[in-house]
């Protein structure tokens, strides 16, 4: 009983983040992935950053070789499940492009699902297999990878966080010129969320 009371006090003080789960996805430009995931009910935070590489403390302007642009999604599993996040992820990427995503090409723009444990791995693999089955004439190149250190963009480069909110005109122009939504509609039809 005492533990529950302490947990309640901590939860009230810090908000629901103590009860939240996290997921990491790479899908090309982290501005777009951040914007797409922040629209999901139950998602409390989306942070842009890098993961998957061996360089420590990568930055946007250098030292991110071998890293993916990715987002760290914090969510309430009572409102949205990891499976629902996976479903949302797939319809917001091009899983067939081995060179990047949309107009952005290069290793850092490749798509990937980063899993933290066996449960996430099983769900991510199953969701990938569903996409493979849905498109038997295409090659799904999006891998399921073990989660490594996630490095949020910060410091002088912090302007990348919430870029779509803070620079809406530039963001919309970039997204349109990049052809992201046109390509997503070609692949997924009106299932894009």
Q: Count every helix, treating DSSP H or I runs of 4 or more residues as helices.
A: 7
Query: How many β-strands, per DSSP?
Result: 8
Strand-and-helix sequence, N→C? HEHEEHEEEHEEHHH
Instruction: Kindly report how far apart the N and C termini lie.
Output: 42 Å
**Rg over CA atoms:** 17 Å
Which class best fits the helix and strand makeup? alpha+beta
Structure write-up:
The structure is a single chain. With 193 residues, this protein is of the alpha+beta class. It has one domain: Peptide methionine sulphoxide reductase MsrA (Peptide Methionine Sulfoxide Reductase, Chain A, 2-Layer Sandwich), CATH 3.30.1060. It is built from 7 helices and 8 strands; from the N terminus they run αβαββαβββαββααα. It is globular. It starts with a helix and ends in a 5-residue tail after the last helix.
């Amino acid at each position: 009983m005492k533990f529950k009371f302490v947990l309640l006090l901590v939860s009230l003080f810090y908000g629901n983040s103590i009860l939240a789960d996290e997921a990491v996805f790479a899908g090309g430009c982290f501005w777009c992935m951040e914007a797409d995931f922040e629209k999901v009910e139950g998602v409390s935070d989306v942070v842009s950053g890098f993961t998957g590489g061996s360089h420590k403390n990568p930055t946007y302007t250098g030292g991110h070789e071998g890293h993916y642009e990715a987002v760290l999604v914090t969510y309430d599993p009572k409102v949205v499940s990891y499976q629902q996040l996976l479903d949302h992820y797939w319809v917001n990427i091009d899983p067939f492009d081995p060179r990047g995503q949309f107009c952005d090409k290069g290793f850092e723009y490749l798509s990937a699902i980063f899993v933290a444990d066996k449960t996430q791995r099983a769900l991510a693999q199953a969701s990938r297999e569903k996409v493979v089955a849905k498109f038997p004439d295409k090659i799904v190149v999006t891998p399921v990878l073990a989660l490594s250190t996630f490095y949020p963009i910060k410091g002088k480069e912090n302007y990348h966080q919430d870029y779509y909110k803070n620079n809406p005109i530039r963001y919309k122009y970039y997204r349109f010129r990049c052809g992201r939504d046109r390509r997503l509609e070609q692949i997924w039809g009106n299932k894009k969320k």
